[in-house]
Amino acid sequence: MKKLTHLLCLLLLIYFQARSQDNKADDANIPKGVPASTNIRGAKYPLILPNHHVMFRLKAPDAQKVQIDLVKKYDMIKGDDGFWSVTTDSVGEGFHYYSLIIDGIATADPASESFYGMGRMASGIEIPFAGGDYYAEKDVPHGDIRIRTYYSTVTKSWRQVYIYTPPGYDATTSEKYPVLYILHGGGEDERGWATQGKTDMILDNLIAEKKAKPMLVVMPDANLGGGFGEEGLKAFQQEMKQSIIPFIEKNYRTKNTAGNRALAGLSMGGLNTLYTGVYNTDLFSYLGVFSSGWILPVQSGIANTQYDFMKQNSTKINNDLRLFWLSEGGKEDIAYKNGQVMLAKLDELKIKHSYYEYPGGHTWPVWRNDLYNFAPLLFK
């Protein structure tokens, strides 16, 4: 028995020494770079190289074809050891969704944290951004993100909402706050602004620097069915008026006037903002439309009906809205052309508005920057 135990210990020693040597050899072969901050704990790949090229490495010995879908698709090369690898072109700074495509099936990378985007759970990668200090975690007072469940009288079901409360919210029982309701894009849900959007970090830092007023930020799920059609837009408008706003104002210390409510959204959320916000300026005094604009020609009927409404109610809209803020992610933004058509129409109708442009396309780096610039303009 003692001999067997001794032999077992010897074999284990040999095994771990071999593993250690393999790891050292593997480490020696890794090019100079850093694992993405979005990797799961201990994962070496994806590896971000100094020029923002990204190296991927995956073991899939039985696969016939493996690709990385990150901005564009890259074919991975299989080695004799069963590992597939590829190095991408330089990838833009900030957060990006990506997927593995294994023999034609798109899936999340097991080495990466997963995020709900693209209509499913997908991988995400954070490329270091020299200008991203405004959403970095700093030694400042921090607010909370709370997850609440409420009953929707529209869907007749229980739904979830994320709520940012500013630093010091629980330190008093008397102070009331204005509210920004902010909406995700298509293929995302209430987790988008809380996770991919870094909303809490952006607001914490702005409030600490006294650039923005302390506020609640409410991040609901805008997926109610009906897609981009008027049925879906009407359903969300009802959800806001009948369920979300009443729930927030009943359960949180809020200032319940139009001058203390803002509505904003990105892409699909921007369309919801246009529909709900423009028709309800008695509820919201601030509107933010990020990377959006009526989709033409698909939504021409919806757009023309709203433009007729604006023409007939231009004085009221201009008097009610303290800020109508629109933005695009530059000419590479897929919403750019539709947005420019809408801006020209607003000029024609003499609807007061502001326009902001930040290069980066239809991506989270753009929308984080939108929030960073929009929030300080609110509740003045």
Oligomer status? single chain
Radius of gyration: 25 Å
Give the mean pLDDT: 91
Envelope shape: globular
What is the CATH fold-level name of the largest domain?
Answer: Rossmann fold
Q: Biggest sheet, strands in spatial order?
A: 12-13-15-14-16-17-18-19
Number of strands: 19
Q: What is the highest CATH level, the class of the largest domain?
A: Alpha Beta
Flag low-confidence runs.
1-28
Alpha carbon gap, first and last residue: 81 Å
The count of domains is 2
Structural class: alpha+beta
Strand content: 25-35%
The largest β sheet comes out as: 8 strands, mixed
Highlighted features:
about 375 residues, Rossmann fold, 2 domains, six-stranded antiparallel β-sheet, globular, disordered N terminus
Question: Describe it for me?
Answer:
The radius of gyration is 25 Å and the shape is globular. It has nine helices and 19 strands. It is of the alpha+beta class.
